[in-house]
Amino acid sequence: MTAQAPPNIDQLQELALPTPPFSYAPQTWGWLLLLLVVVVLLSCWGISYWRRWQRNRYRREALVYLDGLEHNLTDTSQRLQALRELPVLLKRVALSMNAAAPAASLSAGQWQGFLAQHAPAPLAQDFAAHLYTLAYAPDHLVLGIPQTEINALFATSRQWIEAHHVAV
């Protein structure tokens, strides 16, 4: 008896891959048409979503800034500055809207009307007056505003920034 040599790896051969029993291509033109319709609809939805996201960029930036102002309210050295910047922020948001031209020169009752017109829910009648106080009153009067009133102003401002109506 002779000893057989162990098999060598060079003797191995690759097996041929079998052809699949079916084709991956659509069998009828209807499936291809359906695929094209779905792709077009998804593309339109994606473009629409991206445009809306771009249009609302100023809202996202304003909300981040408002969060910073609310954070600064807790620091006594920055409290006055944070209160003074709230009306400025709302005016900047109004100027960033598509209907920015009329918002630039508004004050007092006209400003209240503009805010109420674009608000999703009714605003307090003295909302603009409180903003005027924050912007122009002496420092001791601004710092003397009760915390509950300040919280209400910031909550109303946040609601207005998040959901104000912009004509397209």
Helix content: 55-70%
| Sequence of secondary-structure elements | HHHHHHHH
Tally of strands: 0
Question: Averaging pLDDT over every residue, what do you get?
Answer: 85
- Class of secondary structure makeup: mainly alpha
Tell me the fraction of residues in β-strands, as a range.
under 5%
Task: Label the overall shape.
Answer: elongated
- Residue windows where pLDDT falls under 50 for at least 5 positions: none
Major sheet size, sense and barrel closure: none
Distance between the termini: 95 Å
Total number of helices: 8
Radius of gyration: 32 Å
How would you describe this structure to a colleague?
This protein has eight helices and no strands. By secondary structure, it is an all-alpha fold. It has a domain at 57-163. The chain is elongated. The relative contact order is 0.10.
Please describe the structure with a list of short key phrases separated by commas or semicolons:
mainly alpha
